[in-house]
Specification:
Oligomer: single chain
Strand order of the largest sheet: 1-2
Number of helices: 19
Structural class: mainly alpha
Helix content: over 70%
Shape: globular
Strand content: under 5%
Radius of gyration: 22 Å
Largest sheet: 2 strands, antiparallel
Distance between the termini: 21 Å
Length: 507
């Protein structure tokens, strides 16, 4: 591939380790920087380098396939290894790209939402969160998954709490997230412990080989799988383990909300795929039962419950938060059907929803930046007072509904097609019903913004007051990307199919 010629060989060879090491090291440096503007510049440069590196790694994966980076030169399974394959290469690029976009947006946003003396620690915690997410995605060692899961989680609790400068409820949201996140991590590490008892190794590929030889293993392996599913279910906000998410999304600083909505639950869903289809196997009876009755059952209930709850929200941030719980249900439905087409559709929705929800939360944050509004009734006439911001919000909102020529439509039509091919026509009906419910809560907001008059202040109508350029660029980048995917989806659909084929052994 010609583009690979522009990347130095060392970057492609050592890229997986570099992705984790750079933000970890720079987080410590950024925390000590005395100038808050230098902290932003440092984070901007780091995320730009990470995005370029992730892009090169994704291209390299397409060219050569799966490749393994041996930490310290120790070969697996005895040494810790990093894997880049068709499943995690798109996620690596997603995390890096969303981090870069969020940092651009954060330049004005942090001035409004983060106290001056906390901005350097904010960027340091943000870099730690990036390092943790990238580490979760690329590591081939099960215990290191837990380590990086905790690195990302602890930094996330801090980032959520920093929203207290704007809304004191961020402190209780961060505490709730801390408690439930710690419970989830505990369940997960207990599951890893049981897996180690059963297999005698922590290398995930070696675990998979041993479990296959044992035809799924004993009751120890079954208990391990149960603990892992519950632990990851808490992290990815699977219904009814989602109670931490609405508060965390609603009261965090806007850049944090947008980044978490785009990456944190997506990384946890990646781990669910990795353990369910790679370490374990759907051919094991207990795995098949969990896919059928737990993931599909709770996914569908979450789709319906969260969509209905979103309709009755008066705070737009909470509305979008419950919408995220519903969208996780779509992904779980695709994973639970467990065909190549359905898993590809679920994986595709992981990528597309990150772009959609990131754009929505960034646009919402710009509205708060200008007018301090988050309640539905305060969006009157916003199509006239902030036409560019509201235009991008509208595009992302239509994509969330699943309107044709948007990324959301591509995800939903693929998922509905996969369900129909599997004979799950009732699931097609659920997808259509929840899309109609999304039309209700997004459509209500659009009606208020475009068909009601702007409010009056001191007898005068509020004049046009658009978001700053540093906010508009990221917002419109994601909105345009949603349309591009909706019109020309071959590349991202092909990436999703490659990931599904890897998981199900068809490729």
């Amino acid at each position: 591939m010609a583009l690979l010629n522009y990347f130095p060989d060392w970057l492609l060879v050592h890229g997986p380790g570099f992705l984790m090491a750079l933000p970890l090291l720079m987080a410590a440096v950024t925390a000590l920087l005395p100038n808050k503007r230098i902290g932003w510049i440092s984070t901007f440069i780091v995320t730009a380098i990470l995005t370029v590196t992730a892009f090169g790694i994704a291209l390299y994966n397409i060219e050569v396939g799966t490749f393994i980076y041996k930490m310290g030169g120790w070969a697996p399974p005895h040494g810790i290894s990093l894997y880049i394959d068709a499943l995690n290469a798109p996620l690596v690029l997603l995390v890096a790209l969303m981090a870069f976009i969020t940092v651009i947006y954060a330049l004005p946003a942090t001035i409004a939402e983060i106290k001056p003396n906390k901005r350097a620690p904010f960027y340091a915690a943000f870099l730690l969160c990036i390092a943790g997410l990238l580490g979760m995605v690329v590591t081939g060692d099960a215990f290191n998954v837990f380590v990086f899961l905790e690195v990302s989680s602890i930094s996330t609790y801090t980032l959520v709490a920093m929203g207290a400068a704007r809304d004191r409820r961020a402190l209780s949201a961060a505490y709730n997230y801390l408690i439930l996140g710690s419970i989830g991590a505990t369940f997960f590490v207990i599951g890893i412990g049981f897996l180690y008892m059963e297999t005698g190794t922590l290398n995930m590929a070696d675990m998979a080989r041993i479990l296959a030889d044992l035809d799924g293993g004993s009751r120890v392996a079954k208990v391990a799988f149960g603990f892992i599913i519950i632990g990851l279910g808490l992290k990815l906000a699977m219904f009814p383990l989602h109670t931490w998410l609405p508060g965390a999304y609603a009261h965090s600083p806007t850049p944090v909300t947008a980044f978490l909505a785009s990456t944190a639950t997506k990384a946890a869903l990646y781990l669910l795929l990795r353990f369910t289809f790679f370490v374990f196997d759907p051919s094991f009876a207990y795995v098949a039962d969990v896919l059928m009755f737990v993931l599909v059952g709770l996914g569908v209930i979450g789709m319906l419950f969260a969509s209905l709850t979103a309709i009755f929200q008066t705070d737009v941030r909470r509305m979008l938060a419950f919408s995220s719980v519903a969208q996780v249900g779509y992904m779980l439905l695709g994973i639970g059907i467990a065909t190549t087409a359905s898993v590809a559709a679920g994986y595709l929705h992981i990528l597309n929803h990150a772009i959609i929800k990131g754009g929505l939360f960034l646009a919402l944050g710009a509205m708060w930046y200008r007018f301090g509004i988050t309640r539905m009734e305060d969006f009157r006439g916003l199509g006239k007072t902030m036409p560019l911001t509201m235009g991008a919000f509208t595009i992302s909102g239509l994509s969330l509904i699943g309107v044709p020529f948007t990324a959301g439509f591509v995800s939903k039509i693929n998922l509905a097609g996969a369900a129909a091919d599997a004979g799950w026509w009732w699931a097609v009906g659920v997808i259509m019903l929840t899309s109609i419910l999304a039309l209700v809560y997004i459509g209500r907001l659009l009606l208020i913004a475009y068909f009601q008059s702007p409010p009056e202040v001191d007898g005068a109508v509020v004049k046009r007051n658009e978001a700053p350029l540093a906010m508009l660029i990221p917002i419109w980048t994601l909105a345009i990307l949603s349309i591009v995917i909706g019109i020309e989806s071959d590349l991202i659909v092909e990436a999703s199919v490659r990931a599904a084929e890897l998981l199900l052994g068809a490729g």
